[in-house]
Amino acid sequence: MQDVLLPLRNRQLKPPEQIAWLRWSITFVAVFIFLFSLFYSETSMIKMFQAMTGTIWLAGAGSVMIFGLYCRFGTAAGAYCAMIAGAVLGGAGLMFPNAQLGSIPLNGQNVMMIASVISIALYVGVSYATGGGRQPYNLEK
Asked: Which residue from 44, 86, 61, 88 is spatially nearest to 4, judged by alpha carbons?
């Protein structure tokens, strides 16, 4: 909640508010996991499942963590685009497990790589487009 909600609200949360938001987020995750487990077929390959569920978070978060910590041009808009792209592409990999790219069948690892590259490109592109390259952030601050 500290990384997502506070930047959007532009003010500190009082302790009871923060506890309430944490409870709602935990409830959301629990409901998502429950519904996901209802609709995901158990006959699918376990490696595909692990790769795609990892992709939902890691494709976007990996680029945000690496570029957010070690570059001077990143912006919040770039970070949100990378996270959304990773989640959408990872979810699409789960929804269409037998997809093909031309004549190449895609497995979980291929989709993870594609989602990661697209997330990185979006982070860099959107960050520069929204002004991240004009005034570099002082990492020494």
From this structure: 61
